[in-house]
Amino acid sequence: MDKKQLAGEAAVKYVEDGMVIGLGTGSTVYYALLKLGERVAEGLRIQGIPTSEATAELANRLHIPLTTFAQNPRLDLTIDGADSVTPDFHLIKGGGGALLREKLVAAASDRLIVIVDDSKLAQTFEGVSIPVEVVPFAWETTAARLAEIGGRWTLRMKDGKPFVTDNHNYILDTVFDRIPSVPDLESTLKRMIGVVESGLFIGMTSTLIVGYVDGARIVEVPTA
Ligand code: 5RP
Annotated catalytic, 133? Predict the structure, then answer.
């Protein structure tokens, strides 16, 4: 079985009847959604909050009932992928451009289950591209601020135009060659004028499920 499929399907075992579930975005979450759709067809009663328009569309096709924060301000758990994970369980997310909704959904969840294949395990985020979602107005000035703190940025493009997120923002994929502290970098980005959100997810992971060729391994993150 595909490594992403092994991780995705393992996560769905945590889903119980009556839960409100955050539905992540990406090719690993795809497998979790397929399995969730199967369980819903067998009678599982859950409601999902999607982290992107793409996930909402897929959930609709799979007949996974959706809900909103107005009806359900707290979620039992969220299943989502990641682009990179350190041994401290810090994440880079946003490869698919859904980082803002992904962070909002994860922050409203009692538990975040992160599903990746083993290619996503990293020792450091130094030299790794970190998506930073920025306001399109004056985005050039935000890019200059990123450069001032050592970020080498690239404006994400799609079909020859700037990529626009579901929340109508741009993404600056930004590489830092030296990151003395990932949490400090996250705080710095958060305070930067023009930055809407960064793809650094710090202290949010509850459970990490890693797909390997021979199966999925599950790591429960100790609570501080
Ligand atoms: C989307 C994300 C995804 O979770 C991340 O990019 C991983 O995707 P995939 O499972 O396709 O590798 O953060 O914004």
Answer: no
Could you tell me the pLDDT band of residue 1, with boundaries at 50, 70 and 90?
confident
Domain with CATH 3.30.70.260 in the chain: 129-198
What are the structure tokens assigned to 183, written together? 């949490």
Question: Cα dist. 84→64, 150, 213 in Å?
Answer: 28, 20, 18
Label residue 97 exposed, middle or buried (CB < 10 Å: 0-12, 13-18, 19+): buried
Q: What's the pLDDT tens digit per position in 132-185?
A: 999 999 999 999 999 999 999 999 999 999 999 999 999 999 999 999 999 999
Q: Which CATH architecture does the domain made up of 3-121+202-213 adopt?
A: 3-Layer(aba) Sandwich (3.40)
Residues with Cβ < 8 Å from 181, sequence gap 6 or more? none
The model's confidence at residue 117, banded by pLDDT at 50, 70 and 90, is very high
The yes or no reply on domain 129-198 and CATH 2.60.40.1120 is no
The response to whether residue 24 sits with its C-beta less than 6 Å from ligand 1 reads yes
CB distance 156 to ligand 1 below 6 Å: no
Q: Is the CB of 95 under 6 A from ligand 1?
A: yes
Kindly state the greatest CA–CA separation across the chain: 54
pTM of the model: 0.96
Per the residue annotation, which of 16, 57, 102, 126 is the catalytic one?
102
Please tell me the distance between residue 84's alpha carbon and the centre of ligand 1 in angstroms.
9
Question: Is 28 close to ligand 1, i.e. is its CB under 6 Å away?
Answer: yes
For 6-46, write each residue's pLDDT tens digit. Answer: 999 999 999 999 999 999 999 999 999 999 999 999 999 99
Residues of the chain with CATH 3.40.50.1360: 3-121+202-213
Mutate to test the pocket of ligand 1, among 3, 5, 9, 25 (most ligand atoms within 8 A of CB): 25
